[in-house]
Amino acid sequence: MAFDIGSMVHTRGRDWVVLPDSTPEFLLLKPLGGSDAEVTGVFAGEGGEEVRSAAFAPPSPTAFGTASSAKLLLQAARLAVRSGAGPFRSLGRLGVEPRPYQLVPLLMALRQSPVRLLIADDVGVGKTVEAGLIARELLDRGEISRLAVLCPPHLADQWVEELRTKFGLDAVAVLPGTARRLERDCNPGQSVFARYRFVVVSLDLVKTDRWRQDFLLNAPEFVIVDEAHASAEGEGLGAKRHQRYRLLEDLARDKERHLLLVTATPHSGKEDAFRSLLKLLNPDFARLPLDLSGAENARARETLARHLVQRGRKDIHDYLHADTPFPRRHDAELKYTLHSEYAALFEDVLAYARESVQVPGETHNRTRIRWWAALGLLRALASSPQAAAATLRERALNVDEEDLGVIEGLGRDQVLDADADEREVLDVVPGAQVDAPDSEATRRLQRLAERAEALAGEKDRKLTLLTAQVKELVKQGFAPIVFCRFIATAEAVAAHLREALNGVDVIAVTGRLTPQERVDAVSTLSEAEKRILVATDCLSEGINLQQAFSAVIHYDLPWNPTRLDQREGRVDRYGQVAPEVRVLTLYGEDNRIDTLILEVLVRKHRLIRATLGTSVPAPDEAESLLDILLARVLNTQTRETIQPSLFAEVEAFDVKWRDAAEGEKKSRSRFAQNSIRPEEVAGELQAVRAALGDTGVAKEFVLDALQSSGVIVTPRLDGTYQANPAQVDVRPEFRDFLAQARIFRFDAQAERHVTALARNHPLVEQLASTVLGQALDDPQAAMAKRVGVIRTSGVTTLTTLLLLRHRFHLTGRKGNRTWQTLAEELDTVAYRGRLEGQDWLSLDEVQALLGLTPEGNLDPVQKEDRLRRALGELDSLGESLLGRARQRAAALLEAHERVRGAARGTGATYSVEPPGPPDLLGVYVFIPMPRAGGQA
């Protein structure tokens, strides 16, 4: 027997609702009053389980309760709704409560068909949530069925986790290390990308010849490209970017494919690269003038603005008066001087390095090997005695001396700091030995290594400075992350701090650990009361650490200023639990390498960020400039300080960087998001909160439910609440809540060991589903009651309130495709006097009715009598309630068309129909207070 979507059936001893994706033989069922976690598949074909039609049971007039128990049912029913009927279908299902500003990209997306959007909000604002919200919304609307995220491999695990915890999407990571295993789970001839609905894919994997065509043939209809700037095409950006861009171009050629580009740096002064991203959204954008300023280009700017959202923290901090807290930030540079023996070693190593790169008669390739070995040695020496000793004892590049490209690639990987999206982060020491093991040069390096090892400890003034700073930070309540360049340095620093600081947990996380081991190690450390994390740049991307850490110390200066943002962005972002974050940068005042990097790159990068409000990557010439300046260091025989400002190359570099920053500034002002007005967001947000409830409703419900179940909850001065999990007389269904949320709060402030309970938190959903399920399945014992009689002076005549739950069929059509989804909506209506007159209350009057305070009571017999009369009247209300359902369906359709705006007619179209009258969840009779000397 076939059952319609949304119809009720009975099987396995309880009532269920039939969900979309059901077939006549296989039913997807959700328990009546249950949660999404309880959705079950039932085989109802020949030989399967018995499934029969069911009807919604009317309330029992004997299972009445107080006004508070009626209010509890209303709250639980609102919070249990997951398939909301409003214009935003997804908001009831999320594991995160979006900030109002994060709805702007969603509204922009819904007004496009297909969605082609560049989300370019600043680092730490929440671009992942914005992109995931759009994907979840289109999935819940039925407009898409599959999703792919293309990203750098080090971000794949983070995307998988975000999709699972915040959007309820179980994705698999398709990476070089997982792709073969995933293929083995496929049917013969089946693609990995067809086998799994939701995939997070390494872009560098699928751009290769082995995977490219497979992905293009089986790519889903919705694709998110993270770190999209790394795929932009432009002059001098390299073959790897060209391959990535060709792949995205081919994906974008499908005119029905939804494409979201996500990046914090879409422009960065490279106009041709920026244009290449815009062309992916709309090929016509290639013909836009380079200069879009002026009144004559107003229409072009407006057109482009519909596809681009780009905001900084200042733009969204108080958006719609919803405070979005970002931490205050305090930066400081701290200098040290080398111990005399360390300075002497530095000079001797410099002397060796100068000699090693100037060996007469060497081939160019051999000279380049020596060059990279010398730079690696100087960098390791600036890092720590341990890194220096390890480098002095290691062999340098072991490559084919005939292949200059390989030499240069390995040299850059081991010595410089490549962008994480370009090459894998390497944190091993580079190695300095170039000559034969028994040569005098190698023996010289061995002697230098012994001297370096002798400097560990008190003679390492850099470590002494760090130790003092870390002690002070921990004393002030900060939890710092110390970033080092090399594994040898990180392990030595961690060992020293572990010994120097009593009662503080210290661990080192480096490239020796697998990505999962890194996550596990950080998670374990996060539980410590006092903690210090020492890490290499293997942890500067891919793991957000704002919940557990509040300070960043640059122990080693990065040679690529982008690493500064990556490191600091782990803690300086939305969701940081501390009101202030500290950023400390250590450098050697008499270390010519440190002062060079500080002046040429670090300080200029920070000046641009402070002026512009966002970072602009250094020009591509940065590596060439470092080559020139470091060559000057190696060619200078005296200890004179290099003054970079005197070099023409540095001046030209500075001009190009300033021009890039100015271009970014103009781009941000020119393309500031103005296609969605704040009042539009406010209106839709108000409608969503009215239908589904917000954090305020969640707070009231949770506290009322716990109190009704006998749980003792203690409010604390800091705005949190504490529940005692040891209470033995608590109902079993509340024990999970108490075990996971001993201390909780109801605002956006994050805090360690405190559970923030928003409307969409799983514990709130579980509690709401439990309370609602009890009311439907066991009305006599339930704490929330479906019926009640309330005596109050707030009414002057008998007034009956009905709590209704509508179910709607939303049918979508696009081209030749038709699909159907199920939507639910809670509704309250009320009428005065007897039903025959049908004196219905307005919406405002109904809201006022819900806030009335009981002022008297009736005996049980009177209550039952009143309820029997009210329930008896409702037998004739079928047509009126069906009419109400049709009114709500029309309002729902209007809301969907409103948010689609310009996309109507070109995108998906909807029709909305109720399958029948709404379910009657509750009936509450309000009786006026008796007049003096008479009866009400």
Automatic annotation (TrEMBL):
Keyword presence, RNA-binding: no
Single GO MF annotation: helicase activity
Domain named Helicase C-terminal: residues: 465-624
Domain Helicase ATP-binding: start-end pairs: 108-284
Pfam families: Helicase_C, SNF2-rel_dom
Gene3D superfamilies per the UniProt record, alphabetical: P-loop containing nucleotide triphosphate hydrolases (3.40.50.300), Tandem AAA-ATPase domain (3.40.50.10810)
Name of protein: ATP-dependent helicase HepA
Organism encoding this protein: Deinococcus malanensis
